[in-house]
Specification:
Elements (H helix, E strand, L loop, with lengths): L2 H30 L5 E6 L8 E6 L2 E3 L8 E3 L4 E2 L19
Antiparallel strand pairs: 1-2, 2-3, 4-5
């Protein structure tokens, strides 16, 4: 197999993975809609050290680490997910556990 064919196969595989990932990220966003009572509160300016995201439930601050249930729908085996590294960014959002 030539290097050109190998490169083309890798590019095709990467494109398929990207398309698959986009559809799965849309699915994740749809799952977040199930949790209507959980809201996001942003404080500070994005891309600064002062930027923070807080989660609230019923007006009370909650921990994304401990207070968001694991299952969105246990029967369908779908889960909630809190993403620390947003897609197509280099920024890593640290989850404070206390």
């Amino acid at each position: 197999m030539s290097i050109f064919r190998i490169g083309r196969a890798i590019a095709h595989h990467s494109l398929a993975a990207l398309v698959s990932a986009r559809y799965s990220s849309v699915r994740c966003l749809a799952l977040l809609a199930v949790m209507d009572d959980v809201k996001i509160v942003e404080r500070g300016s994005p891309y600064t050290f002062d930027y923070r995201i807080f989660y609230t439930n019923g007006g009370h601050f909650i921990s994304p680490w401990h207070d968001i249930p694991m299952f969105a729908d246990e029967a369908k085996k779908t889960f909630h997910m809190v993403c620390e590294i947003p897609r197509w960014t280099n920024a890593k959002m640290e989850v404070v556990k206390n």
